[in-house]
Write a structure and sequence with these properties.
Layout lengths: L1 H18 L2 E8 L2 E8 L7 E8 L2 E4 L5 E5 L2 E8 L4 H16 L12
Antiparallel strand pairs: 1-2, 2-3, 3-6, 4-5
Length: 112
C-alpha cells in the first residue's frame, strides 16, 4: 500500500508540474517588442498572456524626405485554453491526489 501511495504521489507531482510549468519569451522584430508568458507545457499551454509594444519610428531617405512612419501602440491579451494537454495534466494531477487521499494511514490515538 505504501508503494502505491508513493507512486500516485510522484505521478500527481509530475502532472501538476506540467500544469503549472511557467515559460517566458521576449522578442523584438523591426521595432515591435513582444513579451509572452505561458503556464503549462510549452507545446500546449492552458494560459497565455502576451504584451506587444510598437515603437514610434520615422525613416528618412537620403534627400531628407520621410519614407515611412511607424506609429507606436500597445496591446495585451490573456487567453485561457481549457481544452489542452496542460489542462489534462492538471485534471490528472488533482485526480491522482484525490484517489490517494483514502489510502492515507489512519492516525489513532492511544490513551493510557
Amino acid at each position: 500500500m505504501l508503494k502505491l501511495r508513493r507512486l500516485l504521489n510522484w505521478l500527481a507531482l509530475l502532472c501538476l508540474a506540467g500544469f503549472f510549468f511557467p515559460y517566458f519569451q521576449h522578442t523584438t522584430i523591426q521595432g515591435v517588442s513582444e513579451k509572452k508568458f505561458t503556464l503549462g507545457v510549452p507545446f500546449s499551454p492552458w494560459l497565455i498572456a502576451s504584451w506587444k509594444k510598437a515603437e514610434d519610428r520615422i525613416e528618412k531617405n537620403e534627400d531628407g524626405t520621410i519614407r515611412s512612419m511607424h506609429s507606436g501602440g500597445f496591446s495585451n491579451s490573456v487567453n485561457a485554453e481549457f481544452i489542452s494537454w496542460s489542462s489534462l495534466f492538471g485534471i490528472a494531477g488533482f485526480g491522482l491526489l484525490e484517489v490517494n487521499r483514502p489510502l492515507r494511514p489512519k492516525v489513532t490515538s492511544q490513551g493510557s
